[in-house]
Amino acid sequence: MTNVDYCGIVNLLRQLVAKDLLTRQEAKKIAARIAAEEQVDIVLFL
């Protein structure tokens, strides 16, 4: 279930970057931090 939640978070971050509400660098940092905290098993690229 953690991986599914992480996929949703990454999709949300992608949308925020597309709408210029978040920079790509900020999104990468957020995704990396969440992946480390939640111990996800998959790697997704922004």
Low-confidence stretches: none
Overall shape: it is: globular
User: From N to C, what is the helix and strand string?
Assistant: HH
N→C terminal distance: 20 Å
Going by helix content, strand content and strand pairing, the class is mainly alpha
Q: State which percent range the strand residues make up.
A: under 5%
Mean pLDDT: 93
Major sheet: none
What oligomeric state best describes the polypeptide chains here?
Answer: single chain
Helix content: 55-70%
- How many strands? 0
Counting DSSP H or I runs of 4 or more residues, the number of helices is: 2
> Nearest-angstrom radius of gyration?
10 Å
Would you mind describing this structure in some detail?
The protein has two helices and no strands. Helix content is 70%, strand content 0%. The protein has helices at residues 2-18, 24-38. The protein is globular and about 30 Å long. Helix 1 packs antiparallel against helix 2 (24-38). The longest helix is centred in the first third of the chain and has 17 residues, at 2-18. With 46 residues, it is mainly alpha-helical.
